[in-house]
Amino acid sequence: MDHLDGLPRPDVDVAWAERTALDLFGLAGTATELGSQQDRNFLVSADDRRYLLKVNNPVFERAEIEAQNAVMAALASAGLTVPLPQPSLEGSPVSSVEIDGVAHHVRILSFLEGSPLIDAGYLSDKVMRQLGTLAGRVSQALESVTDPGLERWLQWDLRRGEQVVARLLPHVQDAARRHAIESALQEVRERLAPRASALPVQAVHGDLTDDNVVFSRDAAGRPVLDGIIDFGDASQGWRVAELVVACSAVFHHSPYRPLAVLSVIEAFDAIQPLEDAEIDAIWPLLVLRGAVLVVSGAQQVAIDPDNEYASSADDREWQMFAVPAAFDADVATEWIRVRLGRTARRAAAPVVGWLVPSFDGPLIDLSYASRELQEGSWLADATGEERRILAAAAAASGAAATRFAEPRLTRSRINDTAEPVNASLAIDVVLPAGTELLAPFDGELRPLGEAALLMGETASVLIAGLSRPLWGRVVGGSPMGMTSDTVTLWLATGGIRRMPPRFVRPTELDAWLTRYRDPAPLLGLSSTRHTRPDTATALARRDSAYDPLQAHYYARPPLIERGWREHLIDVDGRHYLDMVNNVATLGHGHPRIAEAAADQWRMLNTNSRFHYAAVAEFSERLLATLPDGFDSVLLVNSGTEAVDLALRLTKAFSGREDVMCLSESYHGWSLAADAVSTSLSDNPCADETRLDWVHVAPTPNAYRGAHRGEGAGAAYASDAIAQLRRAADAGRPIGTFIAEPRQGNAGAIEVPAGYFASVYDAVRRGGGVVISDEVQVGYGRQGDVFWGFQQHDGIVPDVITVAKAMGNGHPLGAVITRREIADALASQGTFFSSAGGSTLSSRIGITVLDVMADEGLQGNAAGIGARLRTRLESLAERHPLIGAVHGRGLYMGVELVRDRTTLEPATEETAAICDRFLELGVVVQPTGDRQNVLKVKPPLCISEASADFFVDVLEEILVSGW
Prior knowledge:
The chain is of the alpha+beta class.
């Protein structure tokens, strides 16, 4: 039978499978059908175990089936986890049955528990490396396996791939897809023909796809590859085909990152080193493998329309073809060589002449560092913004050009899960209309797409925007045409087969630079190239000179050098939604703050011992936000300094050293502020190093604490009051009670109703005073109230500490209290903070309050916060990993748990999810002593679209994995 005539599956059902399992193998159980393209597979549950009943297509002979068993045995001997054949009642691992008068081979195999990798959704770099290692081990283990049954004619054998595609292509109904496959096949033939005979041949599994590799999950919920199934395609074949098949599956998981397969290739090569011919064959074979899948799937659907397994694979199989087919094979191959440490084949920079007699215009900066791009102007209209800047520069100088290899800020977008395609592989040049363009070398000028291609012996120049081209053979220095305005130039070593991209992803730029060069020599310039800051080098410098005790987010953080509103921008122009920056309350790059700061610097910046109006105005503005009774403001540099000063004030006023604070809290890093900070995530040694004047009450957490649900506030308050009484009885009466009105670092935990009213009253009755630490949760962040304590009806603290939001990133903090408390420190001398109340700090503080009011940011916090809560709670209904949504306004916490009953914290999962968030363009960090809460505290200017983007990305992660 000709396999290419189609292989309809054996016509059997579940009842037949159950009878056969019992009659041939003595297994009495229930069967469930599993997917297969050409065979029939059934899961049989019997004797508290599970087995795979495999009914092979009758076209396959017994020798082929026995060879598959031999391959399984070889892999098992090499320590790989594979299914193994179970003997029939007659003692044979292969039995025969007749179905509709035709003999079919039947086996029972041990069943590998786990899920097929295709169900994992997202494949991390680590998982792809596991896949490459697995493929390498399989290839290594099968090197010495020989069996007559492996000499098979299979349509999946890539040695037959061109024949298979040509024969089955008519089954593809879509004309555009047929044409794309035909065009790709021609290029595949040209690339494979000189190399095919040099490719090593050996036994291969032949089908190491994400359907046939099974996985479990580690403690963080990430996939761990456990074993291999389905040996139906085991045969002799090209050794490199084992790798190619494994790589192909990556394309539909990461269609926007074609070079992601490098992780698989590198891991395979580390186990089974690739020869030069194999490296050269990888990319054309990836295209061929995809084409075989598409045409075979189309044929299978035609002959077996009820085969849901085959029909459901149509879109992903098209991606497995289209993604590698769309990428330049020369670029991919050279980059594979570079990444594998092989000798690069990069051609020397071509020697070219000038395209124009002279060029003396400026090079325009469109990168993250551009000062031409301001106040988000790059987001409205990329092409229009670029043209405006180029035209303005050209008008002033007669010409202008952009820079080569520059990731343009204008080509990046906000709220995008994909890396931007913004690194320039070409340059744009503005010249006076009618400028004659000269051939920089001898060559053939021909059209390519809508551009003109000049092909020489060692180089190619592609020109978009050439007017009146003189097609045909041209001599270096002779006219080729002219320009009406702007031309776009590419310069490549060697020939160009297809229209290259104008922009590529920054992570792929180095690969493209193996063939595409800086067009600067065409303009008589030494360079137009943008030098990208190296993120790894910058991080090494930071860790060398800036002590690592001052930690940074992420193991491999992006290099952030710019911001706009609720987005951070790295040196590649990628925009990250900033969901953690409660310091930049107005957002990043706010023009009014920049203008106020610049203006004040020009006028005066000095300390608060001099007499100037701004410090009084700012202090009055702060007091106006508070209830009557507060009449004194002390300005400092930070939240830590504010807490430290507040503790000095209350100690002086109460005459008592002892302080009560709450567990899981953070108040700062100075000696005093750290002493009352109990968060183990900030100071793992907090319990062991606690000073005797610090008394810690349990945080009133009604979600996972000792008291839960209704009445929790009163119960926690009763415990705290009893603790106050015990301290007094022991001769250590509490002079100060300090707490956040919402437990910020604990995860925006709500303090239950009634708690603060009772505890405040008890502290004061005992002669103490109360500090409300508003550094994180106050200043309009909770939306419906300006100060956090105002969410608790009827309470007013004696002292308020605040910082962060006050300066929108400028170091500014305050202690706000009553005059009598401030005066208690007078006996210790006057208080002074150099920058806290400076002219610059005061002016910035005033401007922040103005902007908050003018832009309605407190109202935005309320509205967007409510939307976030509604959407996150809806998400929790579908995803049990979300145990609770804490907080209000724009200070929230999403608590992740493994079990909603035991509340086991999903600590490892939270860390992995934050890493996945970063890959998808969102900055989120874990918080809390268990590090299982996603902290949600973005700039107050966050838009509805950005809030939705955050929730949508979280759902994508929860669905597709991390």
